[in-house]
Structures are given as C-alpha cells and as structure tokens.
Design brief:
With 259 residues, the chain is an alpha/beta fold. It is 36% helix and 11% strand.
Amino acid sequence: MNSHATAHSGTGPEPHPFAGPWPTTGGTGRRTLLRTALTGAAALGAGLAAGTPATAASTPHTRPRPGTPREALEELAAGNRRWRAYRERHPHETPAVRRTLVTGQHPFAVVLGCIDSRVPPELVFDQGLGDLMTVRTAGEVLDEAVLGSVAYGVLELGIPLVVVLGHQSCGAVRAAVEAERSGEQLPAHIQYLADRISPAIDHSKEGDARIDATVDANVRLVRAALAAEPDLAARIGTGALAIVGARYELTNQAVHHIG
C-alpha cells in the first residue's frame, strides 16, 4: 500500500542485500495449517513428492534450480543486484520455457510481500516464470489463506526458502500506526489489517521514525509466526527450509536482511 516516503533508519554504509545471519527459528504465534486444502495437491507439482525438493534435472529452466536455502538466497540477492544496476535479464520468458511450464512448476522461493504496486517480487529480484511463488497482502498480514499458500509451496513443492518482504513507506503500516494514535476506526476490512499489524508498532519512536521502525518490526513478527508453524518448523530443523525477513528500499531499490 502507498504512503509518504520514509527513509530507512541508520547512517552507516548501505547494507548488502540479505547480509547477516539467517533467522530461521523462534516466534510465539501458532496456527493450524490448512492441510486438508493441500490433500492431493502434489500431483500439481509434476511428480514432486510432498516435502521433497526438485532436482536440477527436473527443472524446465536454463540454469539449475536452487535446491538449498543458501542457494535460493544467493539467487535472489544476485537478481536484486541486477535490478538495482538496471541490468535485468528478465529470465525464463521464452516460448520454450512457457511450453515446459504447462506440465509443472518448480519455484525455488516463496515471497510473502505487500500489495504495494512498487514492490513486485519478480521484478525486484529479476526472476521469471516458474521461479517464485508470491503471496501478497497489505503489510504482509497473515491469515489462514496466506498460511495455507505458504505451506503449499514448502510442503508440496519442496521450496527451500521463504522470504517475508517488507518495504520502505508501507501504507498499511502507516495506517495502523496512525489509527492507534488517533483512536479512529478505519473503514471496513482495512481495520482488520491494522489490528494484525498493531502488535508490531514500535512505541520507542515518534512520527515517521515510528512508522519506519514498525515496518521492520512487522517483518520480524510475521517471520516469527511462520517459523513457529509446526510443519514449517520441522523442515527448518532439518535444514531443508529457511524463513528470512527482508526489506525493500524504494530510494535505492536494495533488498536487505531484517534480523
């Protein structure tokens, strides 16, 4: 969602995309996944067994599919570097790839991002058809449909990486912060979004700094809730899955890690 521009806090050197350790555990939120909705869905993965990553040989792409969390993270970081340098490759859009994808998909990452029109994951990571499974809600808000969608990618398609992608100047976060400050009720279903974001509001700061800090805190909250899901946590425990938080800066197009 749109909002007024707010710069990312901090005065040090520009952060390297996804720099720092990967947080893969923790969080207190727990929900029951919509496992019944996923029953039999493995057939859509062109023969992928539930929870079994695709191999490089099974991918329809011209380069090997990243098969580990680290490989997937490195591919996204490389794509963001291309995006920032205006050297996008727009991969995997050829007629041959499109024909191959008719019979199955083998994406290597799930990106849970905001609906903001300025932050489309396929563009900011310079990926193509069949590369990413994207789920987008205002402020990365979780509900059962979102959880089921993420679980489908991880458990049925064997995706090794989930990225929770927040962004600078998030309008959903601003709405939640300003609604709490004013005490006013937001219209219709927008209040639902604010209620889910409100636990992340950073009360140690004021004004735009509060909104900016809450963007980061909300990413951490959502990431922790996903990592606490039993089925996802089990894959994290074996090293087959990483769930990371990240943030996109509108001012310089960089994606960097949120610890």
